[in-house]
Specification:
- Chains A, B: One of its GO terms (molecular function) is acetolactate decarboxylase activity.
- 2 copies of one chain form a homodimer.
- Helix content of chain A is about 10%, strand content about 45%.
- By secondary structure, chain A is mostly beta strands.
- Chain A has one domain: 60s Ribosomal Protein L30, Chain: A (2-Layer Sandwich).
- In chain A, the strands form 3 sheets. A 5-stranded antiparallel β-sheet of chain A has the order 5-4-3-2-7. In chain A, strands 8, 9, 10, 11 and 12 form a 5-stranded antiparallel β-sheet that branches.
- At the A-B interface, strand 13 and helix 3 of A face strand 13 and helix 3 of B.
- Strand 13 of chain A pairs antiparallel with strand 13 of chain B, so a sheet runs across the interface.
Chain lengths: ~220, ~220
C-alpha cells in the first residue's frame, strides 16, 4: 500500500527487530531508507545523514529475516546488474525469497533516499521528484537486501531490492547502482514469507487500492 | 506453480493439518478438490465420490488456517455472486485475507472437480477440458474458502476461492455457483499469510515460470 501513499507507520522498530536481525524498510511518512544489519536498524535520511533508530519509531513497511547465511563466494569485482546472474551460477533460487548480503570495498555506489512526506500523503510515484541521489567512491560497506520472485510482487518488490550502508554507518540508501572491488557475496535461501498486515489500522483496512496494473507498473518504474 | 503444471505433491496431508483445521487445496497430480473442515481433510474426486484423506497423501497446494470465526450473520438466502457485497456490509476486509464459512441448506449448488493427471503434467489450463461439473439441489452442507486480495494473487487465488462439501460428506468440489436457503455466513479476518514454499523440491526451485501476465490471466480464466 506504500505505492498508494499509505505512509503511516503500523509497527514499531523494536517490534520489527524481534522478527529478524537483517533487513530493509522505510519509516513513518516515507522518512528515509532503513538498513537492518547485525540487529541494528539504521535510517538513511534525505539530508545525507544516517541515524540509528531508537526503537519507538513507527514503520509502514519492512522486510526482515533472522540471518543465517548458507553460502558465500568471494569475487574480485561485481556490478549491481550482475548480482542476479552471479547468484544463479551458485544456486537455483528464482522461485523463492533470498536474503542477500554483499560486503567489502566498492569502487562506486549510487543510492537514492526518499524524503519524509506530510499528510495528506501523495502517492509513491509523486514523491519521486523529492528523492535525493547520493554518490560515493572507494567506500567500504555492505549491501543488504532481498530477491523476491515476480509472482510475489506486491507482497514485496519483485526482483532484487537492495539497500547499502557504509562501514562507518554514515552513508546509505536504496541502491541505484554499484561497482565493487573485492567483495563477499553471501546468500540465504528462504522457504517462504511470513506476511503481516496491519488489519487493526483503519487507514489500511479501509483503503480502496488503485488498479493493480497501475500499482505493479508504478513499482517497476520506481525501481 | 500449479498454473504451470507443477502438480507433484510437496507436503503430506497430516503435516498440513498441523497448520490448521479449516481450508482448501488439491492433491498430487491435481487429484480432486480438498475441503478441510473441523480438522478432517475431504477429497472430492472427479468420479463424483468423496474420500477422507488418511494423512500420507502428498499435496501440491493448499490454504489452511486455525479456525476462530469472529463474526457471523444468518441470511434467508445468499447467492455466490453476492458473498463479496454481503460480507462488505459487515466489515472492511478487502486488503487482507479472510476465511469464509457458509453453512446451512442450499437450493442449488454447482461444483467442478479437477481430474488426476499423469506425468508429464499438462498446464492447469490444459486440464480444463478434463474437469467434471456436478449439480445438486436442496442439499445441506458447508462452503469453505478464502478471500485473497488481488495484490496477493499468485500466493493464492485472488478474490473469492470457495469449495463445498455436503453434510453427508458425499458431494463436494470447487464452487462454480450456489443459491442458498437459510444459511449462516461466518468470517475470520486473518492478519497475513504464512507462505511456505517447497524449496527442497528440485522441480519447484528449478522451474522457469511462464510469463507472469499469462499466469495471472490463466488463474482468472480458470475461476
Amino acid at each position: 500500500m506504500l505505492v498508494d501513499g499509505l505512509f503511516g507507520g503500523t509497527i514499531t522498530a523494536s517490534k520489527l527487530l524481534k522478527h529478524g536481525d537483517f533487513g530493509i524498510g522505510t519509516a513513518e511518512g516515507l522518512n528515509g531508507e532503513l538498513i537492518i544489519l547485525d540487529g541494528v536498524a539504521y535510517q538513511a535520511l534525505a539530508d545525507g545523514t544516517v541515524k540509528v533508530l531508537k526503537g519507538d519509531e513507527m514503520l509502514p513497511f519492512a522486510n526482515v529475516n533472522v540471518s543465517n547465511f548458507e553460502g558465500r563466494v568471494v569475487l574480485p569485482g561485481l556490478k549491481m546488474d550482475d548480482v542476479d546472474a552471479t547468484l544463479a551460477k551458485e544456486l537455483s533460487y528464482q522461485n523463492t525469497f533470498v536474503a542477500i548480503k554483499i560486503s567489502g570495498t566498492f569502487k562506486a555506489v549510487q543510492t537514492r533516499v526518499v524524503k519524509e512526506q506530510q499528510r495528506p500523503y501523495p502517492t509513491l510515484s509523486e514523491t519521486a521528484s523529492k528523492q535525493q541521489v547520493f554518490d560515493a567512491k572507494n567506500i567500504k560497506g555492505t549491501v543488504v537486501g532481498y530477491y523476491t520472485p515476480a509472482l510475489f510482487q506486491g507482497a514485496g518488490v519483485g526482483g532484487m531490492h537492495l539497500h547499502f550502508i557504509d562501514a562507518q554507518h554514515q552513508f546509505g540508501g536504496h541502491l541505484l547502482d554499484f561497482e565493487s572491488d573485492k567483495v563477499k557475496l553471501s546468500w540465504q535461501l528462504l522457504d517462504g514469507l511470513d506476511l503481516n498486515l496491519p488489519i487493526q489500522d483503519s487507514e489500511f483496512i479501509k483503503h480502496k487500492p488503485s488498479d493493480m496494473g497501475i500499482i505493479r507498473q508504478s513499482i517497476s518504474e520506481s525501481e
